[in-house]
Amino acid sequence: MNPQTVSLSTIPDNKPVRVYLPITNHRQKFRSQAIFKSQTGTEFELRFKPGTLPVKNLNLADSCLINVDFGGPNISMQASISSASGHTLKMRADKLISHDQIREFFRVDAVTEVISKSFHTDFFNSTGQPWLLQGKTIDISGSGILAAFTEQPPEEDPVRLELTLPSGNSDVIALLASPVRTYQVDDSHWEVGYHFQEISDEDRDRIVGCCLEIQRTFLRLSVDSKR
Predict the structure, then answer these.
(1) Backbone angles phi, psi at 206, to 5 degrees
(2) Is 224 domain-assigned?
(3) Is 53 exposed, middle or buried (0-12, 13-18, 19+ CB in 10 A)?
(4) Which of 131, 133, 143, 223 has its CA nearest to residue 175?
(5) How far, in Å, CA of 210 to CA of 142, rounded?
(6) Which residue has better confidence, 167 or 205?
(7) What are the tens digits of pLDDT across the range 53-64?
(8) pTM for the model
């Protein structure tokens, strides 16, 4: 049994995975979630919530990235799309990479409001002005977020974040965070990963609680995938 098959076999059926799909004439990949279903060898299926898979816009000639989060070690998989129909993709694993780094908390896709602003709000930054940027989260965990902004936030550490919980009641959590990576997607799209540096236990528990609720909602997809 080759290393790819060993790695692929560690993913249980009906496991929720994060998927980055190639879209025709777009450099940025489409981010979604799906349910994993093993087939034979390196073949598998991804099953999506009905109405969420952009079948007509998929670039079947390009590869996609799949991330499987085990709450500790995770597997990132480069895969090819064999066919697409309805809410199912038939896939082939091309390359699997096991990561040694351990995540402190599992991560879920969630879009909500986030504000990043200068730490010394009563003073000034190097440009002589305090700054504030409004953005949207891409994913959230109890230890950090990935957020998108229309311009690059100043490279300051720490920064203040005001995070609106994706729980429907618009609760806002204020905390200190450190930017750990910044990536420019295009001229008006910047993605920044933040690690929570100073946050109360109560607020962290509230974030983790929201993540668990989002995960439970998504796990209901596994019921549909078995039909």
Answers:
(1) -65, -40
(2) no
(3) buried
(4) 143
(5) 9
(6) 205
(7) 888 889 888 888
(8) 0.56
